[in-house]
Amino acid sequence: MRRALLISVPYFWLLVLFLVPFAMVFKISLSDSVLAIPPYAPTMKEGIWALLTQLDFENFTFLTTDDLYWKAYLSSVRIAAISTVLTLAVGYPVAYAMARAPEEWRATLMMLVILPFWTSFLIRVYAWIGILSTEGFLNQFLFGIGLISEPLTILNTPTAVYIGIVYTYVPFMILPIYAALERLDGSLIEAAEDLGCSRLQAFWLVTIPLSKNGIIAGCFLVFIPALGEFVIPSLLGGSSTLMIGKVLFEEFFSNRDWPVASAVAVILLLILIVPIILFQRNEQKQAEADQ
Amino acid sequence: MTKTLIATVAVAALTASAAFAEEVRVYNWSDYIDEDLLTQFEEETGIKLIYDVFDSNEVLETKMLTGGSGYDVVVPSGTFLQRQITAGAFQPLDKSKLSNAGNLWDVIEARTEQYDPGNTHSINYMWGTTGLGVNVGKVTEALGADAAMDSLALIFDPANMEKLAECGVHFLDAPAEVIPAALQFLGEDPDSHDPEVIAKAEAVVAGVRPYITKFHSSEYINALANGDICVAFGWSGDILQARDRAAEAENGVEIAYNAPTEGALMWFDQMAIPVDAPNPDAAHKFLNFIMDAENMAAASNYVYYANGNKASQEFLVEDVIGDTAIYPDEATLENLYTTTPYPQKVQRTVTRLWTKIKSGT
What is the CATH number of domain A67-256? Predict the structure, then answer.
């Protein structure tokens, strides 16, 4: 009995926080847009029968008629993937240095990674506007040391979006990799070196494979939110940066078409679910291997 | 004894909460009122005023159509108001509670009837035009002394825009403002709902797209005032605010607002009470307070927008009432046009076209 109760907790969690909201969005995606409160029909008020008979998939077929949607999905996947690689390139060395630092420093270093979270995310993204703009700190600095003679245009370009995403999500990359590296037994590397590996080979053949799970976890923690990112591209990116988050916003606010907006969201979720399932399976395998 | 004590405490608690029970929540555009008026309202009526701001009609509309916004007074623009009235988002005003109704200006009321027949659901707060903000010095430098700074050709003729691109041009990020202007420039009906006619506007905007620095609906105020850009297609009062900020900064930047000679879009921001307003009674008190001649004049004197209150005009400073950019003369007034809301299908076409213009996809 107690065991059943214990097992039911995560399922209850999944039901309340994932399945129920998803069912609501999915239901709206099958309805029609009308001018009323709320702006779609049929609603729950009209009874289950009306609900079941009037739903259809036309909003999903509509998404296939305009190339805007798949271009936006594709562009989002590309931006999220490039950002993830960049974040890994920045995050891994940091995590590695933290794990190699003397024991008494690690808590402080960890604190430094987490510290930016004490400031609002929005304010930190706004700060980048001040840094990257034509009259901003970065240009003034580069101008001051004589590296450039014309100000660089970074703000409102894809570069600014990458900088924003990497900056925002790098802690999510550092923490799981650090956790993996910290557990790594130093004698394994000594053994590798004793057996003739150079330091670089030991890193490549021992350290990287043993931190693989940290890398995978970090990549998903960055890729998934970056895919649906709306705030960073709208503040730092120009109007030519096409991302699905923006398209979703336009459907919802400019077109007032909740059903199509919901259909876009459902597809986005499906794109995300595949990597999440892969991630879960990997975790499971890891747990089994540990036993 | 204990019972009496509890009863006394309970009564005291009830009275205390009653003192704060009366509150009114107002949702208005950002930078759109003299904030002294807010404290004055609280002092005069004893009603606690919670004042929030928004910066786009779309955000307000989504809140209205979701329902349960918790606001007592909101300020949508004409076309948005009309659609939301159809959706049943607003309650009819109780004119018996609006003793200042006689102050309203019939000229404006006649025009707002287009959106709100009989003006039964709303009162006009402010109105203005959409036009050209120019940095006189920089535009003269780029185009020569005889450049027509009051013509839509300034922003829609690629030959002009090519030269202006270097000093920067901002457009409102609002298709419902830009497309009518482009149609007016072509000599078409600016209020056309025909997708084929609207497509002609797309060609005009797409033709100058490479020279547009940014589409944004509020950044141009500072950008103009600082001299970062030389032309903005924006709202009259915002550009006049930029003019004054530049003058205060004494940075040598001279900004002017010109309503295009081809004709300018005239818009109206209307105060209305949501159908599910928690305190409609206090909402009426707030409307009546705003409709007071001196209060309305104070707001206009502060934000540089004209209002729909005839009686307030004697309290307006010369800078406002005497400025034809704010209160246009008869001839200009004739030259202003209004638009009506796009039907759902056309709205989708317009949004799609706007995305295409901006992102190239």
Answer: 1.10.3720.10
